[in-house]
Amino acid sequence: MLTHSEIESFLQDGYVIRRDVLSQTDIETYRAAVDRILHKCRVEKVHQYLRYVDGEQDDIWGVNNIFHPSIREEALVESLGHPQILDVIESMIGTRLRYHLCTLLVSSERKPYHINWHRDSVRDGEVPREQLIAKLKSSVQLNGALYDDDTLFIVPGSHRREITSTERHIIQNSPKADMPNQMAVQLRAGDIVFYNSSLLHKGHNRSGVIRQTLHYALVVAPPEGEPPNPDSPTSQEWLDDPAFLEGLDPRIKPLFDNWLKYG
Questions:
Q1: DSSP string, 80-136
Q2: Which of 46, 68, 136, 256 is 20 to 30 A from 9 (CA-CA)?
């Protein structure tokens, strides 16, 4: 599914962009599903796991836990097993995977939003190099654009090293400012960027620009034979619903089985 150079790019640069991987039918189906979710969140207010612009409760830029039964859309559940998504991630980090998160990133309604520079694991970016190197193939996250999207900014290669003094100064003092060697990830509708969550990155969605982006993450599950976590996951507990698990496509069911087994 991936070429050798793409895999090397993911390891060295921390990201790979794949063009036109979602068909027009995919895009239209997912847009309709996202529209229904946003109506439930913004109008019906039936879902509590939301990302707010500057903490304002009337303007959202993201929807977490999109497989919650209050807003679940079958098309988006099935999208996790899309061959242009799951096959690519398996090519990058292997086939023994565990679900981590599925979120929507969307344009806000009242004012633009601008998210600080960060690594997902640590907001201040301070991670020892050896820890970063050890996790180069431990997880993959993606942004799948349903409309043209230039919201994501990254610093290529920063997932392999500690932050510089200049980067530290920006994160601590002006965390939305331009970063040396930053790059805007330019996606057209149907493109997907796969990236390492330890990259320094930020989000900046300008006013008047429509955004609907699938934001998914999978992690490597423990080796076969590893004892299960004695405690059931305490977040997203609704994914333990037998009706949900039994209805999953066989291709993605192991992702959730491993999530339940290992937490």
A1: TT-HHHHHHHHHHH-S-EEEEEEEEEE--SSS-EEPPPB-SS-TT----HHHHHHTT
A2: 256
Range of the domain at 127: 4-222+229-262
Q: Which CATH number covers residue 77?
A: 2.60.120.620
- Print burial letters for 65-98: b (CB count within 10 Å at least 16), e (below 16): bbbbeebebeebbebbbbebbbebbbbbbeeebb
Unique residue bearing structure tokens 């793409």? 6
DSSP 12-65: HHSEEEE-S-S-HHHHHHHHHHHHHHHHIIIII-----EEEGGG-TT-EEEE--
Report the half-sphere exposure of 107 (CA within 13 A, side-chain side). 18
By CB neighbour count within 10 A (0-12 exposed, 13-18 middle, 19+ buried), where does 220 fall?
middle
- Reported as a pLDDT band with limits 50, 70 and 90, residue 182 is very high
Domain count, the chain: 1
Cα separation, 115 vs 4, whole angstroms = 33
Instruction: Quick: pLDDT tens for 185-242.
Output: 999 999 999 999 999 999 999 878 999 999 999 999 999 888 888 776 878 989 999 9
Band (58; pLDDT cuts 50, 70, 90): confident
* Whole-number Å distance between alpha carbons of 114 and 131: 28
